[in-house]
Write a structure and sequence with these properties.
3 helices; alpha/beta; 96 residues; single chain; 5-stranded mixed sheet
Length: 96
């Protein structure tokens, strides 16, 4: 029953007020600033680039045998005030 708005942002600060931020591989240089900003905004960060979960992105998508898998960084989620579901943690590869 809720609408979804998708928009591109130029700077990490422009994502304040959003619920989720997807971080593409082209933003790898900005990941530290994005993670820092997300920690004060209860912002779910999602990426698709190797190393993003270890860098503090909460969820990172990767592919194995043509299947999309999930890495989760529960510590990063806790720092933003978010809690990952037990079901998600069971299916994800945990990274801290």
């Amino acid at each position: 029953g809720h609408g979804i708005e998708v928009k591109a942002v130029e700077r990490p600060e422009d994502a304040r007020g959003a619920h989720m931020l997807f971080i593409g591989s082209s933003e790898s240089a900005n990941v530290p600033a994005i993670v820092k900003m997300a920690e004060t905004s209860a912002l779910l960060t999602v990426g698709d680039t190797d190393g993003y979960a270890r860098a503090g992105v909460i969820l990172n998508l990767y592919t194995v045998d043509s299947r999309v898998r999930i890495e989760a960084n529960p510590s990063a989620a806790t720092r933003t005030g978010l809690r990952l579901s037990a079901h998600l943690l069971r299916i994800a590869r945990i990274v801290d």
